[in-house]
């Protein structure tokens, strides 16, 4: 089965706190991509990161960092020193195979992050 | 840069009415998609078009039809709208075979549809 689970439905933090959003995926494919998207209150989906299954290096982009661990099928997202503008719904998604011409992203349920001043 | 543009942004329909959601992309992508977003369920794929001239069903195709008009445009039609189709609809596009973009899928801004 192909599945993405974001167990945290809602998270609330105070500004400047660090916060980690969890993502666990299931796939039998050996080649796949993982994504994180941000959906701010305005509604659009903003691409944050793409990671392929052969690259387990952690990535840092400013206050954002991603921890990809194939051993635990997890692709967690950490925001350091959170800001009010980080308030959004965050989606983790799986693309099971790069040879899948359908490009059928499988989304998690999303985690709503609220950062309070 | 426009990216993926979809219209209308908001629409209210009566049960049984029909309508078409329009989508256009200016990134010269071969693949285009329609997703719907419902509370607590993430996004689910309705239909997709891997390339111009082809369309295939996704996870939740019932009640919808699509047309890949040309490489740029991919429309979604509700023939007889039902309250269960109240949702936010997203069009998306990608270039599967481009190593540079590597399967990144770009989304439009969403269309809020209410069926009463």
Q: Which secondary structure elements does this structure contain, and how are they paired or packed?
A:
The complex is a heterodimer of chains A (117) and B (116).
Chain A: E1 3-5, E2 10-14, E3 19-21, E4 24-26, E5 33-39, E6 46-52, E7 59-61, E8 64-69, E9 74-79, E10 88-95, E11 106-107, E12 111-116
Parallel strand pairs in A: 2-12
Antiparallel strand pairs in A: 1-4, 3-9, 5-6, 5-10, 7-8, 8-9, 10-11, 10-12
Chain B: E1 4-7, E2 10-13, E3 19-25, E4 31-37, E5 43-49, E6 56-57, E7 64-68, E8 74-78, E9 87-94, E10 105-107, E11 111-115
Parallel strand pairs in B: 2-11
Antiparallel strand pairs in B: 1-3, 3-8, 4-5, 4-9, 5-6, 7-8, 9-10, 9-11
What is shown here, in short?
The complex is a heterodimer of chains A (117) and B (116). Chain A is mainly β and 117 residues long.
Give a written overview of the molecule.
The complex is a heterodimer of chains A (117) and B (116). Chain A has strands at 3-5, 10-14, 19-21, 24-26, 33-39, 46-52, 59-61, 64-69, 74-79, 88-95, 106-107, 111-116. The radius of gyration of chain A is 14 Å and the shape is globular. In chain A, the strands form three sheets. In chain A, strands 2, 5, 6, 10, 11 and 12 form a six-stranded mixed β-sheet that branches. In chain A, strands 3-9-8-7 form a four-stranded antiparallel β-sheet, with no helix packed on it. In chain A, strands 1-4 form a two-stranded antiparallel sheet. The model of chain A has no long low-confidence stretch (mean pLDDT 90). By secondary structure, chain A is mainly beta. By secondary structure, chain B is mostly beta strands. Chain B has no helices and eleven strands. Chain B has strands at residues 4-7, 10-13, 19-25, 31-37, 43-49, 56-57, 64-68, 74-78, 87-94, 105-107, 111-115. In chain B, strand 4 and strand 5 form a beta hairpin.
